[in-house]
Predict the 3D structure of the following.
Amino acid sequence: MDETRNQLAHQAADAIEAEFPTIHALVGFDGFVDSIIHIVNQRHSMQKEDYDRIRTIPEFAARCGAAAGKSANLEMVVQDVRFGGNGPLLSSALGSLGASVTYIGAVSLEDDWNRIDPIYKPFAERCDRVIPICPPGRTDALEFEDGKIMLGKPESVQRVTWDLIKQTLGLETLIEMFNAVSLISVVNWTLVAGVEGIWQGLCDEIFPNLDPNPNRRLFLDLSDPAKRTDDDIRRAMGLIQNLQEHVPVTLGLNLAESGRVAEVIGVNAYDDEHNQTLASMVPIAATRIREKLGLSCIVIHQHTGAGAADDEGESCWFAGPYTRKPRISTGAGDHFGGGFSFAQNAGLNLGQCLAAACGVAGAYVRDAQSPSRDRLIEFLRDLPAPE
């Protein structure tokens, strides 16, 4: 298993190091400002960093549960305030890897929608072009060693609609922009109500007017639809199937999302869980979901690895370089998606795409920044063993 894993990682590194045409991408349309937060367990003094943090989500849940019928005062220590949102984080991964990225989304100043919020400057420097259409939402990202809890305030991003995008740029310009790229990504269906209208606008007004391009692909990420109803998810899957009629669609899901989507569309994706490993279950789940929806590719990621299935009949699993103590976890899934879609557009096979995606996410959580192409190659050639 380790030999196969390392071989795939080395093959992915070789393929990414090889010369291939620049990948041109258009991504949208959300935007958030993320406060990365630790929760204090016990203070030793009132100096800012002199405390022990609550390290795990179960510990945090127990502290909250113990407050029932009483009260609690939990101190939050802000570690960093940085640009966020599924689209900007995925774009940051793409741009750092060398893709030419155009980003359209909720990244403007509150008092001037034509100007980019300065917090997005590092992100904008990785893109060829960033087009702000409204201000970002806000997120308190509570980080623990075993995961994160995202407390989102998405009111601002509800301004993002297909009509606003057309009003800002004009339909002819939009057609030209989409025509010039091979990778399109629309993310964060869960928090951005306007995404469904954007999908429909692409089907009705963009894709029928594009020149044929056999390399064009669409990467979608729902972003934790736990709070959305079954009817919502069913409707979204129908719209995604409509998109597949125009362009090959890759749908990225995390493990929990894949189970929820499978249940809603009537697929027994994980019906053989007893004594089964993720390495055996996830590729089967990806295959069943992909076949039911008729999409080009389903990729399912989890902090210990990822599996995928495509319309060429391939399915596989890759054990990721899991670390117990990430420097950052907020944005890891978006970096996985950026790495996967980059590798897919670069022509890597399915296993190599998984290796590259796990490599991008693995380097990101260790470095707390998007890896460059050189950093990814180095990381894949000396891929850490899972902890």
